[in-house]
Specification:
Blueprint (H helix, E strand, L loop, with lengths): L2 E19 L5 E21 L4 E5 L11 H13 L4 E7 L10 H16 L6 H8 L6 H6 L2 E5 L4 E4 L7 E6 L6 H9 L9 H10 L2 H7 L1 E2 L2 H7 L2 H11 L4 E4 L6 E5 L2 H13 L5 E6 L13
Parallel strand pairs: 1-8, 3-4
Antiparallel strand pairs: 1-2, 2-4, 2-5, 5-6, 7-10, 7-11, 9-10
Helix pairs in contact: 1-2, 2-3, 6-7, 9-10
């Protein structure tokens, strides 16, 4: 195999709770992660030259050693003494620095693709063990589907699949620093925690309304005061009939869960008319068939 093309999926957080800060500077979290059918295309090609190269359709994206996809390729190349090189082409559609794990998903695709292309023989768990060295979300982006994440996000447990629904994703034109958000969270007491167990109950019964009613993200209390447009977008989605709407990760992206795709499209139209953002997409939940290829790429 000399080349492979993969879909690197975005993720949303159905629930995000922070339990405390650890001595190593990371935070203990309890989150429910869900992959959605919004994706970057990651193309890998073997080369005779030993170098790793990265190209992207986004001019502002770093393509050298600072790029997480580059780091993923280097990690396996160094460990397994791969003599040839690899050319990585990222066709980005997932909004960048948006709380959707686009970079982590790119890295996961590179790990998976190189494992196949160079016949390294690594299991899914072995890929995940290497992925956590690159970022806390990378192991999940290898697993995908509906998953409970604990620890720093690397302790993963597969949950019942999310009921089918339309997902509206809107990324306002503001930038959020995850580091800044967590630092601000550390300086205050968390007043309200999301009902993670309630979401799991809703997943077990396939009850979208129960899931939506239990959703919550403790980071909203930090990010929304910095960027009130996030709350505006949430309200538009709710007014248009979303079962629930919430910020994903540290933001600024907002997602809404809709029983009707038509209502999701109506909310998309209103968000555009109000000029809250141009990056707004209607998509679907992505489910992993665990009895097939465990990677799902």
């Amino acid at each position: 195999m000399n080349q492979i093309e993969l879909k690197a999926l975005a993720k949303i957080n159905l629930g995000l709770d922070v339990l405390g800060k650890r001595a190593d500077g990371y935070h203990d979290v309890r989150m429910i992660m869900q992959s959605v059918y919004l994706y970057d295309t990651v193309r890998l090609e073997r080369t005779d030259e030993p170098e790793i190269s990265v190209a992207s359709n986004l001019r502002f994206l770093p393509t050298g050693e600072d790029n997480i996809a580059y780091k993923a390729a280097k990690l396996l190349k160094d460990e397994f003494g791969i003599s040839g090189g690899v050319r990585i082409t990222l066709n980005k559609h997932i909004p960048v620095a948006a709380g959707l794990a686009g970079g982590s998903s790119n890295a996961a695709a590179v790990l998976f693709g190189m494992n196949r292309m160079f016949r390294l023989g690594l299991s899914q768990q072995e890929l995940m063990d290497r992925g956590v060295k690159l970022g806390a979300d990378v192991p999940y982006c290898i697993m995908r589907g509906t998953v409970l994440a604990e620890g720093i996000g690397e302790e993963l447990k597969v949950l019942p699949p999310m009921p089918k629904c339309a997902v509206l994703i809107a990324k306002p034109p503001v930038s959020v620093s995850t580091k800044t958000v967590y630092e601000a969270l550390d300086s205050r007491e968390i007043a309200s925690h999301p009902d993670i167990d309630g979401i799991i109950d809703g997943l077990e019964t396939g009850d979208l309304r129960k899931i939506a009613g239990c959703m919550g993200n403790v980071l909203e209390d930090v990010t929304i005061p910095m960027h009130p447009v996030i709350e505006e977008i949430k309200q538009v989605m709710k007014d248009a009939g979303a079962a629930g709407a919430m910020m994903s990760g540290s933001g600024p992206t907002v997602f809404g869960l809709f029983e009707s795709r038509a209502r999701a499209k109506e909310a998309q139209k209103i968000i555009r008319e109000k000029a809250l953002t141009r990056q707004v997409y209607v998509t679907n939940i992505h489910s992993v068939r665990r009895n097939q290829d465990v990677h799902g790429f």
